[in-house]
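User: structure tokens for this one?
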Amino acid sequence: MTPTLVRQHPSHAGHVPRVNPRARARDWSEIQERMLVPLYEAVYERLDVGGGTRVLGLGCGSGLALLMAASRGAAVTGVDSRFPERLELARRRLHAETAGPPGDGAREGRDRPARTGDGVRVVEGAPRDAADPSEPPFTLVTAFEPIGCLAGDADGLAELLARATPLAARGAAVVLAGWGPPERCATTSVLRVATKLADPLRSAGSWRPALRDDLEEVAQRAGLRPDGSGRVACPFGYADTGSAVRGLLSTGLFDAAIAATDDEQVDKELTEALHPHQRADGTVWMPNVFRYLIARTP
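Assistant:
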């Protein structure tokens, strides 16, 4: 159990968190994103993703899941509107790995998606910006960013899916991901730091425990038909505590806590919470279980 720390927080009115978006994007790409590789692999294997698959990756971030699908022969399109710095990394990564022609600009706008190679696109904007009338509809839509940890994240995902599913073929698979039961996720005790430090009067963006039917409720609201589910072990492993702090902060799950206190306070609390998960060699290891739901478009 994480020890309870008793303290008084000074007033932080007007405090601006010292967050470097580019550094956060690098930390996500280099440290945190790989923690979900078992989830991506399990989904792609179950759905037999390959040469006949056209993937639309929602919230594609820095593109690792897209790259894995492309390596299986799928045509992939990634779309993201929240993290332009991650998206830029995705463009570079996918172009380098697919050896396709360079994009048609250093930074494409919402109406000019970056083409990074044959069958590979990265789009900054909403799902509708990923539509290409000259191409067949998508056969697989993925929303791999796990929900169930932030207040309101289920609402946001339901709205996103409602906008994305019209771009998919009839009966296409739609994959939603979420955190598993808190008792099966060692990282839960660390994520509670976000709740302790966040402003209790501003619940939006603060951490909450995952609920059993989160994914099913989102699918229902988006007009999708559930068609199977699974659980995947995704342990979070880090070289040291510093890497763990950087990786976890890159998720954005602690941004509300930083805004309510300050980044130094959050760093300190995170380090304390990670202590029980640090092994004798200095590495940090937290077993977790993530859940995915496969749904079908009408």
